Amino acid sequence: MTTSVVHCPALFLTAPASNQGKTTITAALARYFTNQGKVVRVFKTGPDYLDPQILAQASKQPVEQLDIWMAGEEYCQDKLYQAAQVADLILVEGAMGMFDGEPSSADLAARFGIPMAIVMDVKGMAQTAAAVATGLANFRDDVQVAGLIANRCGSERHAELIRDALPANLPLLATLKRDEEITLPERHLGLVQADEVKDELEIRFEAAVEWLKETKDTGLLELPTAVPFYPANQVDAKQTIEQSLLGKTIAVAKDSAFSFIYDANLIALKSLGANVVFFSPLHDQALPDADALWLPGGYPELHTKALSENTTMRQAIKDFFQTGKGILAECGGMLYSLDDLTDLDNQCYPMLGILEGQGAMRGKRGCQGMQTAVIPQGEIRGHAHHRSRSANTPEPVGYGRRQRHPAPGEAIYQQKGLTASYLHLFFPSNLDVTAKIFLGKGN
User: Fold this and answer.
1) How far is the C-alpha of 49 from the C-alpha of 37, rounded, in Å?
2) Domain CobB/CobQ-like glutamine amidotransferase, which positions (predicted)?
3) Is residue 305 pLDDT above 50, yes or no?
């Protein structure tokens, strides 16, 4: 790999708040340029499983997370540099509002010199949209703003009022009309998983391309300015990785009940020497021949009956647990590990019973946030995002350490080779701890 600077057009899609249309517009742009034969690499800021599925289908390329706290600056720099070597365009979708979080989307964009486009739902305002965009653009000197994307713009007159109110150095990149046919489908924890609505998404992506073409302001339909991307410090970004999982096979649960899987985590396991195979707790009758299991998060609460009735698989996982081999159960995977789970319809079903306790959904109230898992094997970073609760569980071996709050975070349980928690771990943040978790009681 060359160690010289690489230039690549890049744009960072941000917004004043959530629910402004960032994912829809990022996906539309990715498909627009992909249809032109361009290689588009999309990144998502922060911990997210569902948006990357959508964006990967739109761009027909893998999508990974960029987060300075969770992954580190050198990791993010290395990922961008690798992408710049193969891409014609890099798009980064931000999280929440432009300056929300520590670090924020603006912090990431400023660190790597990527210009930001502000996506704003302008329904119900005109000149005020220009005022808000101007305030965001001038809030920090180290952030470069390429312009405003006015989403859900009612008419050309509406667009004109916004355009005329913007300063000369803050152009209106696009005015996108209101169109509910473009909006991506949602669910209680975010967007619906791409695999569930693949054909519908294809229709919406292509409709979104035509939607983009209708804008009277064409700045968004041209490749943005090329940004210089530099190689990361090789000592930090490419540490000599001990292949402590060499020769080990890790079976990963993957189906419509369990799908919250970072591509970066799979890459990390392979870098440790592991062979990764997949299985379905919903449909398969037997486990693959494996040395460790990973039960990731997902939507087990939508499949409680089917998971419970697959008694052959439940017994297979119970037998595996008794061997003391490594099992990582994250969030939905932890709920599956409990004695029983009460779903959204208040129906209770038996689950694996490898971790004492009961799980239950709790409507719209939830828990989320960045945390560091503190366990006997060491510390590893991750995040929590759930709308369920657990009760009557055993004594934890540790807790998550919250990023900005002194109260204990999520409880973490270990029994035999099982590590279970509501936390979704980001393996690249500590490969040594990752390996020890999957090695189970023999580590």
Assistant:
1) 27
2) 249-429
3) yes
Same domain, 223 and 253: no
> Rounded to two decimals, what is the model's pTM?
0.88
Whether 100 is in a domain gets the answer yes
Decide if 347 is inside a domain.
yes
Which of the residue ranges 130-139, 205-214, 281-290 would you say has the lowest mean pLDDT?
205-214
Give how far the C-alpha of residue 263 lies from the chain's centroid of Cα atoms, to the nearest Å: 10
Say whether both 159 and 194 belong to one domain: yes
Cis bond upstream, residue 52 (ω within 30):
no
Query: Do 173 and 286 fall into the same domain?
Result: no
Q: Answer yes or no: is 237 within a domain.
A: no
Q: What is the 3-state secondary structure (H, E, C) of 60-111?
A: CCCCEEECHHHHCHHHHHHHHHHHHCCCCEEEEECCCCCCCCCCCHHHHHHH
| Sign of the torsion angle spanned by Cα atoms 417, 423, 426, 432 | negative
Tens of pLDDT, residue by residue over 66-80, are 999 998 999 999 999
Are 417 and 288 contained in the same domain? Answer: yes
* Same domain assignment for residues 167 and 198: yes
Rounded to the nearest angstrom, the gap between the alpha carbon of residue 185 and the centroid of all alpha carbons in its chain is 17
Per-residue pLDDT band for 394 (boundaries 50, 70, 90) equals very high
Give the three-class secondary structure for 47: coil
62 and 195 together in one domain: yes
**CA dist., res. 327 & res. 312, Å (int):** 18
- For residue 146, what is the enclosing H or E element? strand 145-153
pLDDT digits (tens, 9 = 90+) for 15-50: 999 989 999 999 999 999 999 999 999 999 988 778
Q: Which amino acid is at 290?
A: A
Active site residue 348: no
Give dist(CA 103, CA 239) in Å, integer: 24
Among the listed residues 8, 76, 153, 331, the single catalytic one is: 331
Range of the domain at 79: 7-229
Determine if the peptide bond prior to 350 is cis (ω within 30°).
Answer: no
Q: What is the CATH number of the domain that holds 133?
A: 3.40.50.300
Taken in order 176, 178, 184, 188, the sign of the CA dihedral is positive
Same domain, 185 and 330: no
Q: Do 194 and 275 sit in the same domain of this protein?
A: no
CA distance 330 to 359: 13
